[in-house]
Design goal:
heterodimer, A: Immunoglobulin-like, extended, B: alpha+beta, Nucleotidyltransferase, domain 5, 5-stranded mixed beta sheet
Chain lengths: ~525, ~400
């Protein structure tokens, strides 16, 4: 896994966060990289991770985001399972039969397979059915009091609101008295009287309509320090820890024996949407059991992947060769070029998004606009992008070549033919080539002020050609829209500088590497 | 489930109540009588994958990312709702730094795109849970203890008192006492002294399970170096299979003394309360002393309230206060909740009322504001517009 999710090669997302390629998305409509930080996330489906029951959001709300059937252990928070035991019961002799009859009954209780806590520890009586509902529920004792307080404050704020609205009404330009005569005029009064309605009150409401709540009464009596702290020996295993207490917030029991099973917290599946164009870029299938995606625009389908080939040792004031393996994951061939940050003018080093926003308009064709998600009524400024905090402390020399990489072809893996003949590669730059993969040689030198044992961090820009149009079978093949994308790559070389050890020559490295490949 | 509970659910206007403490965050929905969860204010960074304490930050950018990660977890792990078009209630201390509230507002509006936020002062809304509007609110949390008197619903800001006396100070004292008592049991059964980095969670666990606030009488004896006759039993705390700490009886009693010992300025938790009363005008004093409300997780310690009352009654007789304060009764309220989430409950009650739609800061207003700064509680400078009215009219 460490190799799969390479943390050595990081890519700057359009929002400025640095992520490995596998954690990035690619919005095909804006043609920019996106990451979990800069997409808007939505709750797709709510389910219980244990019984995989799918709940509607209103139902989940009613159940307070907890599964009605599954329970967690209050001690170790693992899932509880229902266990059955057989208990033989001696029935009292019924008149007619001489001996007492024996019946065996199955009893069910909850048990944790991890920490061995059972519902019997909480003195919850066993149940006679295996159905997982109907375990005793606990209720907050103060609910009635709190809801009466809520009612009281609701009425107070409602009154305040009405007063405020009345005040605004008075201040408004409508200063005539016509409406008063409509409401309070003699005819209206008479009409009300005839209809048997109570007359309208002219003044303010009196406070008698407020519901009565008993304000809390302070008392001089406080809970004293229990005397048994000085006499009773403390049994640490019988006392709850803070997470256990907070599992049941309204009771927060101090003793393990007062804990009771907690309903299992529900989980969600999320879909993710690009914030600027509002297209979905990641959508899982609805069912909780499915692990497939309806839509998954991961960056590793679109952006050439860069991997460090091997560990290298760097030396002060000396260039060291660095091998990077680049592979094209797309279905279309691409061309790659490497640039220093200074060479590219339209990318500001820090604090700036890739300049794709202007290109965006022509990139979205009219067809896709019709499929757009509901467009926001009001546009808000997008969140500011983050500052890239990667500080480089080395320099990389980039080969001045344009490398063309063919499209990914799974069958090419088994093709024995040597592809390198097809391309006029400079052998001092391109060390190896097969299918959609190529190994390119770079050279790296650490800055002079770098300390020993410090990671060397370098950065450059990979510019590659991307086919902007989403190729669908319906569209004409000739309708090509190629654009160049710049991706900021940051590499940290985790091998420290060795001040004493002699550097192995670059050529030697290549030879050994090729030797490894042959074998 | 009671009928009224589901009533508030159907109304579909539930807003989200967040009370972010330095150590623990209380989170839930409005109108409910207890929080959905009380979780450590810690998060796993989405950039580095490492565990992080949210309020441990170097600069605003780091705080911003921490809060994004943390609130993301709250929304998608606990609330299970889409943050867009949600109203959020933040319960915060009156003394919370502006950088935190500004960053929090920016995180919620810019990143999570919530509809509106309202910041509620924890001291004031705690009184809502009691149905009273005058009280001396003492909040003893993890980082600090803050005393603010509230009179007829208005915080008496000139009488505020704050000292870094909270669980953090207690845990530091406990750590100092037990740091050198860690033993390693070898395979032969010998016990060897061991230096071992005590994690905060272990210290906290020992504190929660065994420490208590002793009585004033015993505290006086202990302060003079005498040992009272009756000793709380000592015990052995196991960190893992082979590492143990022997907790002596004195270690269980003394750590909490840090809250009540007077420091160089002769300040302690109990003097804070009296000083705060003293700073209020003379006709409020009796009423405040008879309406003390205790909040915060630390006050839930065994014996805390009894000791506080003893301390207050004994201090009032000392010359420092006896000729200024003529109070001989202190009364305490019992909120309908555990003390560590009283402020949250106040937020939950407020969140169920129309106050949210009337006084929240909406996203529109926030975007119109030129410098994206949430006005302070007491700042009336250059804000005659609706923003300040919306926020300050509480």
């Amino acid at each position: 896994m460490a190799h799969l999710s390479q943390q050595d090669v990081l890519i700057a997302c359009s929002c400025g966060s640095l992520r490995p390629l596998i954690k990035l998305y690619f919005c095909r409509h804006c043609i920019v990289l996106r990451c979990g930080y800069c997409v808007s996330q939505e709750v797709d489906s709510i389910y219980c991770s244990n019984c995989l029951e799918n709940l509607a959001s209103s139902e989940a709300k009613l159940k307070k985001n907890r599964c009605g059937a599954c329970f967690d252990c209050p001690c170790c928070f693992h899932t509880l399972t229902i266990r059955a035991t057989t208990i033989s019961r001696i029935n009292p002799p019924v008149d007619g039969s001489p001996t007492p009859s024996k019946t065996s009954v199955k009893n069910y209780y909850l048990s944790c397979f991890f920490c061995r806590w059972t519902s019997r520890d909480a003195k919850i009586p066993d149940k006679l059915t295996a159905t997982s509902s109907n375990w005793p529920e606990h209720e907050n004792t103060y609910t009635a009091r709190i809801s009466s307080l809520i009612e009281y404050f609701k009425i107070i704020t409602l009154r305040e609101r009405l007063e405020k609205e009345n005040r605004m009404f008075l201040h408004s330009s409508r200063r005539g008295y016509q409406h008063f005569s409509e409401k309070f005029g003699l005819t209206a009064m008479l009409a009300r009287k005839r209809a048997g309605l109570p007359p309208l009150s002219l003044g303010r409401d009196d406070t008698s309509t407020l519901p009565h709540i008993a304000p809390s009464i302070a008392s001089e009596h406080v809970e004293p320090l229990p005397d048994d702290v000085f006499t009773e020996a403390i049994d640490i295993v019988k006392l709850t820890s803070l997470p256990q207490r907070f599992g049941i917030p309204d009771l927060q029991p101090e003793l393990i024996s007062n804990l009771f099973p907690i309903h299992k917290q529900l989980f969600i599946k999320r879909s993710q949407r690009c914030r600027s164009c509002l297209h979905n870029i990641f959508k899982p299938e609805y069912g909780p059991a499915s692990i497939k995606f309806k839509l998954h625009l991961a960056a590793y389908y679109y952006v050439p992947e860069i991997r460090l080939m091997e560990k290298i040792k760097l030396k002060r004031r000396q260039y060291t060769h660095l091998m990077l393996k680049i592979s094209n994951p797309a279905q279309i061939s691409t061309q790659i070029q490497f640039l220093q940050f200074e060479d590219v003018t339209d990318i500001v080093q820090n604090n700036e998004v890739f300049n794709f926003e202007e290109k965006k308009d022509d990139s979205i064709d009219t067809k896709s606009i019709t499929n757009l998600a509901p467009i926001q009524k009001k546009t808000y400024p997008l969140e500011k992008s983050r500052r890239i905090t990667f500080k480089t402390n080395g320099k990389i020399n980039l080969p001045d070549v344009i490398i063309s990489l063919p499209a990914r072809d799974d069958t090419a893996e088994y093709d024995e033919a040597n592809d390198s003949d097809m391309y006029q590669d400079n052998p001092s730059v391109i060390v190896w080539r097969k299918g959609n993969k190529v190994i390119v040689k770079f050279s790296v030198i650490p800055n002079n002020d770098v300390e020993d044992n410090e990671d060397i961090k370098i950065g450059f820009i990979m510019r590659y050609s991307y086919h902007g149009k989403i190729i669908s079978p319906l569209e004409q093949k000739g309708n090509k829209d190629i654009r160049l994308l710049d991706i900021k790559i940051f590499i940290s070389i985790r091998v420290c500088i060795s001040p004493t050890e002699l550097l192995t020559s670059g050529n030697y490295q290549i030879r050994t590497y090729l030797g490894k490949l042959m074998s | 489930m009671p009928a009224y509970d589901s009533m508030s659910l159907i109304s579909d206007k539930q807003c989200i109540i967040i009370d972010i403490g330095y150590k623990y965050t209380k989170f839930g929905f409005s109108g409910e009588s207890n929080p959905r969860c009380i979780i450590p204010t810690e998060t796993i960074s989405s950039d580095t994958g490492k565990y992080k304490i949210v309020f441990n930050y170097k600069d605003t950018d780091e705080l911003y990312t921490n809060l994004v990660d943390f609130i993301h977890m709250l929304f998608f792990k606990y609330a299970l709702v889409h943050p867009k078009e949600k109203r959020v209630v933040i319960v915060e201390s009156l003394l919370s730094p502006s950088v935190i509230r500004n960053t929090l507002a920016s995180v919620l509006f810019d990143h999570f795109e919530v509809t509106s936020i309202i910041f509620l002062p924890s001291h004031v809304i705690s009184l809502y849970t009691l149905g009273i509007n005058t009280g001396l609110v003492v909040d003893v949390g993890f980082q600090e203890a803050i005393v603010i008197p509230i009179y007829e619903g208005i915080p008496v800001l000139k009488a505020w008192q704050a000292l870094p006396l909270g669980s953090k100070a207690v845990e530091l004292a406990l750590r100092d006492r037990i740091q050198n008592k860690i033993k390693l049991i070898t395979e032969k059964g010998e016990e060897v002294m061991n230096s071992f980095c005590l994690f905060d969670t272990i210290v906290e666990d020992i504190k929660v399970k065994s420490c208590f606030v002793t009585t004033l009488e015993r505290a006086k004896l202990l302060a003079n170096g005498k040992i009272p006759k009756l000793q709380p039993p000592a015990f052995r705390y196991r960190i893992d299979g082979s590492t143990v700490i022997d907790i002596e009886s004195i270690d269980r009693e003394l750590p909490f003394e840090t809250l009540f010992e007077q420091d160089n300025d002769q300040m302690s938790l109990s003097t804070m309360i009296l000083d705060s009363i003293l700073k209020c005008s003379i006709d409020m004093r009796k009423q405040l002393a008879e309406n003390i409300v205790l909040l915060g997780g630390t006050v839930m310690t065994k014996g805390f309230k009894a000791r506080l009352k003893e301390e207050l009654l004994s201090l009032i007789k000392q010359p420092k206060y006896s000729d200024k304060l003529f109070i001989n009764v202190f009364k305490f309220h019992n909120p309908p909740a555990k003390e560590n989430y009283v402020a949250w409950l106040g937020g939950s009650i407020c969140g169920a009322t129309d106050m949210i739609s009337m006084k929240s800061l909406t996203r529109d207003t926030y975007c119109e504001m030129n410098n994206n700064t949430i006005p302070d509680w007491c700042s009336l400078t250059n804000r005659s517009d609706s923003v300040i009215q919306k926020i300050l009219q509480l």
